[in-house]
Amino acid sequence: MTIKSIRRAYQVIRISLHYGLDDLIPSKVTPWYFKLLRGCLFWLRNQHKDKVGGERLKLAMQELGPVYIKFGQMLSTRRDLLSDEWAEELAMLQDRVPPFDSAIARASIESELQAPIEDYFDDFEDIPLASASISQVHTATLKSNGAPVVLKVLRPDVEAKVHADIQLMSQTANLFEWVLGANNRLRPAEVVEDYRTTIEGELNLKLEALNAIKLRNNFLDSNALYIPFMYEELCFTRLIVMERVDGVPVSDKAALEAQGTNLKLLAERGVELFFTQVFRDNFFHADMHPGNIFVSREHPNDPFYIGLDCGIMGTLTDEDKRYLAENFLAFFNRDYRRIATLYIESGWVSADTDVSAFEQAVKVVCEPMFNKPLNEISFGHVLLELFRTARRFDMVVQPQLVLLEKTLLYIEGLGRQLYPQLDLWQTAKPFLESWMAEQVGPKAIAGKIKQQLPYWAEQLPELPELVYDNLKMGRDLAKNNNKLLDRYLKQQQKAHKSNYLLITSAILVICGTILFSQDATLWASYGCVAVGTILWILGWRSRPKFRKF
Ligand SMILES: Nc1ncnc2c1ncn2[C@@H]1O[C@H](COP(=O)(O)OP(=O)(O)OP(=O)(O)O)[C@@H](O)[C@H]1O
Predict the structure, then answer these.
(1) What is the C-alpha separation between 342 and 338, in angstroms, rounded?
(2) 131 is annotated as contributing to ligand binding
(3) CA gyration radius, the chain
């Protein structure tokens, strides 16, 4: 421990006591030595008794500086942990900080370029366009072609400051973990670790540039999203250079209305973008706050989004996507038992969870949502409530799902803000449809056979049981009288049947070939191939024809 870190620790304690954050720990879990320490530092105690807890936490974080401000912003998205009032308070934290000296910015840029700024840029603007806790943005034009660009450069010493603060946060979180006991639901150590991963990623601007390049390529032909071009040869860990773009901040609805933007189309395109990123590309922008999203000025009737700051991106595994889709299906089917078992099957909650109690808790939060018409049910809200409930049953935090839930909530909220009559279900439907088509259509069958052949060969004795389980699951869901789900489930049952036949036929043909190559009796190998061929024809004929629903 250095003098600096001791001073910082004292500062954190002082500010925490000043805003009465110690009062926020329930007194029955506050150990005697905490109470003693607080008694000794009585003159620092709560000066803000009139304010509510969320506001006090917000003020304390504001005073503690950029790393805590960002932490507060991240916490504000953890609605599975915090109540809505607290989350809303923390969401108000502003990450705008005074700019650092442009001479330092210049020196930093030149050190990355290993050349004077004038070798690459004209009109470098010393007054920054924006200044945030991690980086500062300056404008310039490229010497080679006169293109307007922005340079994003890390703050001096930001890495050391972030590491020191995170270290202290982590030690404090461990202390709380110890005080609160292993079964506490806040899991401070886990939350801080999650934050560490996020903020450390943001310290590498090159990573942000690579993410932006990937996202830009995914949406090159899109009329919904534009990502500025990155000058990759001028992108480093502490500096990135990109095309300068111009747009209306998405939060400025008055300006959007004034220029005649088609807000309905814009809102729909937001939801469309989310589902395309998640279900088509499996790569989604997960830091969608208003400062990072702009709207095109030209062609207000055909508006598109301009996305900045690709520092935090999310991806989901195929398993996660499947469990998510099944969660939504089970929810719309009001099959709360299925939701509870899905959480256990996926390993998100432990295998010894009391399924009936979990089912009951899910029912209590989900059932009131059906008081609204289907098109008003928010997918993000459903996920949020499910995660909140699951946390009471010790759900292991899935950072990728938390990112997804927060992005979904944001996109839906933004859509509703831009166009209050937005029909979420109709907008999301085509994307879920095409994703489901991929899961149950003929292409998927061929792909699955190729991919899963070795696995199925190993699992063959259990195959009928597995197929039965899946069909049974389908039947359970099909009890529902919702037409849409019925059609989907029938397609899925057909797909399972067809998959089973096709996989078995492929295995028989392979067995036949192996027998033949090992000079086994000819009738055995021909028999295998013949039966395999018949099963293949049956499987192929029974494959589902994907229909729109
Ligand atoms: N390519 C660009 N063209 C025009 N303006 C830009 C561009 N990139 C960034 N900006 C401006 O700089 C601001 C900050 O950029 P960015 O969000 O990338 O920085 P940041 O340090 O990551 O900030 P935060 O942490 O708040 O997201 C943006 O809100 C925007 O106003």
Answers:
(1) 6
(2) yes
(3) 28
- Return the CATH superfamily for domain 97-165+201-245: Phosphorylase Kinase; domain 1 (3.30.200.20)
Count Cβ neighbours within 10 Å for each residue of 232-252 and write b for 16 or more, e otherwise. Answer: eebbbebbbbbbbbebbebee
Among 418-422, 448-452, 539-543, the range scoring the smallest mean pLDDT is 448-452
For residue 44, what are the CA distances in angstroms to 19, 298, 330?
A: 9, 55, 52
Where along the chain do its domains lie?
Answer: 3-95, 97-165+201-245, 318-431, 441-541
Ligand 1 centroid vs 328 CA: distance in angstroms?
35
Q: Is the CB of 132 under 6 A from ligand 1?
A: yes
**Residue 522 annotated in ligand binding:** no
The phi, psi pair for 341, rounded to 5°, reads -70, -30
Residues 6+ positions from 323 with CB-CB distance below 8 Å: 342, 345, 346, 348
249-303 pLDDT, tens digit each: 998 999 999 999 999 999 999 988 998 998 889 999 998 877 899 999 988 999 9
Look up the ipTM and state it: 0.96
Q: Bridge-partner residues for 548, per DSSP?
A: none
What's the mean pLDDT in 101-128?
96
pLDDT tens-place string over residues 192-203: 888 888 888 889
252 with 333: CB under 8 angstroms?
no
d(CA 228, CA 52): 42
- Nearest alpha carbon, ligand 1 atom 13: 130
φ and ψ at residue 122, rounded to 5 degrees: -110, 165
Q: Is 416 exposed, middle or buried (0-12, 13-18, 19+ CB in 10 A)?
A: middle
**What average pLDDT does the segment 217-242 reach?**
96
Whole-angstrom CA distances from 12 to 61, 64, 169 are 10, 7, 10
Collapse the DSSP code of 184 into the 3-class scheme (helix H, G, I; strand E, B; otherwise coil) and give the result. Answer: coil
Q: Which pair of structure tokens corresponds to residue 295?
A: 């709207």
pTM, rounded to two decimals: 0.74
Is 135 annotated in a binding site? The answer is yes
Q: Is 95 a catalytic residue?
A: no
129 lines ligand 1 (CB under 6 A): yes
Cα(400)–Cα(286) distance, integer angstroms:
9
